[in-house]
Specification:
The complex is a heterodimer of chains A (162) and B (283). Helix content of chain A is 32%, strand content 17%. With 162 residues, chain A is of the alpha+beta class. Chain B is 34% helix and 26% strand. Chain B has 283 residues and is of the alpha+beta class. The relative contact order of chain B is 0.12. The chains are: A alpha+beta (162), B alpha+beta (283). Chain A binds chain B through residues 1-7, 9, 25-29, 32, 48-51, 53, 56, 59, 62-65, 68-70, 72-73, 116, 119-120, 133-135, 137-138, and chain B through 1-10, 29, 32-33, 36-37, 39-40, 47-49, 51, 53, 77, 100-104, 106-107, 187-188.
């Protein structure tokens, strides 16, 4: 496949269970594709320097920073955004735990924080506090000081093990 | 922020990719965790990106007994999980878990990291300490370059514009003690100073020892001559003398992570602490 500078490329991406086909510039970032092309504005742009993790989504089951991925890299891939976590109007246990443990204030880091927590718990269903802190260090929160986020992840782990 | 305009080529084979790159003006895309931020900051404006992600032939871990060969597209997350690497190259396994964060490790590759040659990156010091060999390929052939000769300066390697790193060969050092210590001010930062050690110790005597640093200069640093002073009986005074000589021989850049003097001091102290730990010195 060859796309010359200035030309567009057709990509097919499955997002939250639905296949989308779009013509985009190769330079379009995945986060812009999700927000601007597909209208899924749950995923946030924070630092734009791959540091804060507010843009975290799942790509083929793995957590990634969507501001540091080209949409064309997601061609043929399955993406899950925060919008895809709840089903039939019911919140995911991680979302419930964040709510019940006051793990957010402004809420800006929260979608990314929840997506990364989802991945962390998938890899390690019973993490220690140390492992949670280590697993979430790619996500920055300016409001909470992290304590309630840690509690929420521990709570979510308990709920998901039950 | 968003990248400048560029063309995009998705090759169907490595030969295809190399053929395309021989035309010039093309940058290879691996995990993109260094390349894409550079594009967003407009530090580079390549005419084309060549996407290596579809090339399964670059994605392998081969256990060849005394050597483990790792394909350049293997991700940091793969290295962390791989049992062969955990058993045969434990220093590399430990280091991979300290690169960036989980999200970055799910995309970033060993080939990309080595080719990028950030002076504060983690793998270049590991490559030096293992005496790894890099295999560089282009449409005109292939060549093997030792890690010692591969890193030339900040973000500069032996790679020509038409070449990519295909694989890295690590010798297996059985029975060596190992540690990678990465000093950071905040989790996820690049190393302020990083030290990698591999040591063969028998009856409190050092038979072989290799030490390499990151963050102390333009490229990873291995004090080949000074290392030899640690051979023989393990002693705290030898360790302290080595640490002082090393910190006097480096000239780290002053930057947002710290001043040159501070980094030199950290180099000295981390050398003493980690050597004491690895060589089993109780003070």
């Amino acid at each position: 496949m060859l796309v010359r500078p200035g030309e567009k490329v057709k990509i097919r991406v499955k997002v939250n269970g639905i296949w989308y086909e779009r013509d985009i510039e190769p330079r379009m970032l995945l986060v812009h594709f999700l927000r601007d092309e597909l209208g899924l504005t749950g995923t946030k742009i924070g630092c734009d320097t791959s540091t804060c993790g507010a843009c975290t989504v799942l790509m083929n089951g793995k957590s990634v920073k969507s501001c540091t991925i080209l949409a064309v890299q997601a061609d043929g891939a399955e993406i899950t955004t925060i919008e895809g976590l709840s089903s039939d109007g019911k919140l995911h246990p991680i979302q419930e735990a964040f709510k019940d443990n006051f793990a957010l204030q402004c809420g800006y880091c929260t979608p990314g924080m929840i997506m990364q927590s989802y991945y962390l718990l998938k890899e390690n269903p019973s993490p220690t506090e140390e492992e949670i802190r280590d697993g979430l260090h790619g996500n920055i929160c300016r409001c909470t000081g992290y304590q309630n986020i840690i509690k929420a992840v521990q709570d979510a782990a308990r709920r998901m093990r039950a | 922020m968003f990248p400048p305009q560029f063309g995009y080529y998705r090759p169907s084979s490595l030969a295809d990719a190399l053929d395309f790159m021989s035309g010039g003006g093309a940058k290879p895309l691996a995990g993109g965790q260094s390349l894409i931020p550079m594009l967003k900051f407009r530090l580079i404006q390549p005419k084309f990106l060549v996407d290596l992600n579809s090339l399964r032939e670059l994605y392998f871990i081969k256990d060849e007994g005394n050597i483990v060969t790792i394909g350049s597209m293997i991700k940091h997350a793969d290295i962390v999980k791989d049992l062969t690497i955990k058993n045969k190259l434990p220093l590399l396994s430990q280091t991979a878990s300290k690169v960036g964060d989980m999200q970055v490790r799910n995309m970033g590759t060993i080939g990309g990291s080595l080719s990028n040659a950030d002076p504060s990156a983690d793998y270049p010091a590991i490559a030096l300490v293992y005496d790894a060999k890099m295999v560089l390929v282009s449409s005109s052939g292939e060549r093997e370059v030792s890690a010692k000769d591969f890193f030339k300066g900040p973000f500069t390697t032996e790679l020509r514009e038409d070449e990519i790193l295909r694989e890295v060969k690590f010798p297996v050092l059985q029975g060596y003690k190992f540690k990678y210590e990465k000093i950071v001010r905040r989790a996820g930062d690049f190393a302020l100073v990083g030290i990698a050690i591999l040591a063969k110790v028998e009856d409190n005597k050092v038979e072989d020892i290799r030490i390499a640093y990151t963050g102390v200069g333009d490229k990873p640093y291995r004090p080949y001559e000074l290392e030899k002073t640690l051979i023989g009986e393990v002693s705290l005074s030898k360790i302290k003398e080595f640490a002082e000589k090393v910190s006097n021989s480096v000239n780290p850049p002053s930057d947002s992570r710290g001043s040159s003097a501070y980094k030199r001091k950290v180099t000295q102290l981390v050398t003493i602490n980690v050597l004491k730990e690895v060589l089993g010195v109780v003070s």
